[in-house]
Amino acid sequence: MTMTRTAATFAPPVMEARRWLDGVEFAVDRPLINVSQAAPVDPPPLALRQAMAEFAVEQDSAHLYGPVLGNDDLRSELAAQISAHYAAEVSANQIAITSGCNQAFSAVISAITDQGDEVILPTPWYFNHKMWLDMAGVKTVDLPTDDDLLPDPERARALITEKTRAISLVTPNNPGGVEYPADLVRRFFDLARETGLRLLVDETYRDFDSRSGAPHDLFQQSGWDDTFVHLYSFSKAYRLTGHRVGAISTSPALLAEIEKFLDTVAICPGQIGQFAALWGMRNLTQWVAGERDEILDRRAAIAEGMPRLEDKGWRLLGLGAYFAYLEHPFGIASDELARRLVPEAGILLLPGTMFMPEGDSAGKRQVRVAFANLDRAGIAQLFDRLQGLSF
User: Fold this and answer.
1) Which of 136, 158, 166, 389 could form a disulfide with 198 if both were Cys (CB 3.0 to 4.6 A apart)?
2) What is the pLDDT of residues 342-388, one digit of tens each?
3) Matching CATH topology for 13-43+287-387 and 63-284?
4) Top-level class of domain 63-284
5) Where do the structural domains in the chain lie, given as residue ranges?
6) What is the CB neighbour count within 10 angstroms for residue 344?
7) How far apart are CA 92 and CA 97, in angstroms?
8) What CATH architecture is 13-43+287-387?
9) What digits encode the pLDDT tens for the residues 46-58?
10) What is the mean pLDDT of residues 76-81?
């Protein structure tokens, strides 16, 4: 029997990691430290929840289909905010709202590729991007990064073939945390434009970038939407993970193709989630700024604590947004290490093998820590436990 593409795709890593908890009991004075998933665990702020509840009760439209590409008011507001943030001119007809940023990526890939085509992903990659490419029958061409976790445009150029359709970047990066410098992102844009490719830039964690102002100038380039496809998520900024609201910014012509995918998968984004995203953009600017400050403080706590781990042979490869990406000092592979950390240290994290091509030796030495849900005390406790490890 022929194996389907879905059957050949690896299982969802976060769900796999959760299964490592089955049957494990944690002492009251040594609870589990879960740094496996990059998602807020707290609900949206109360004012937003109240507004969502009123909308659900008072507006019949909250429970009906809407436009496939999203509601006009949300598309217009996002276009205005992108224009302001990036000092550019973006129009509502260049915006589509999606059921989360993963769907945004899937929709774009479906619109620009055919079976057997190729997309270049820097490694370590975001595993859901790799999973979708596998299920779509698109070959993932891995672009190894160096110790700084930054991809090299010239190394990417050497990987381009007649089958290549896109290069996909994530900044601030998942899993590495690193923020791609503006000039590096621009060099990838120039490469994509020169070679006739699409450049996908997933900025799910943009709201937690340590830099102020625009992180790149791609929206300012003439005819940007012929090359550049911008992906965004409202989930992290407004704690709307369960409501699945993401966005795509690109050319109206490409959005017309993307609309076909969206119409057959979800028909339209959920109304309550779209309302929440719009309300958040209009009312929670200062609140989001406070959330960003807190994340940056937790990032600082990781940096301040690293000398303790470096003394034990650990190395920090990347840090930013929600993530710290580390090289461990032990003589066992990271997938085995991650499983053993659950019962032996009360830590749930993801091994680098989940973000690398199968057999890549670098992934066996790396782990990802999603620290956004730990305060400074929790980070200190995590470091205490890591510091005391011996394998």
Assistant:
1) 166
2) 999 999 999 999 999 988 999 999 999 999 989 999 999 999 999 98
3) no
4) alpha beta
5) 13-43+287-387, 63-284
6) 13
7) 10
8) Alpha-Beta Complex (3.90)
9) 999 999 999 999 9
10) 98
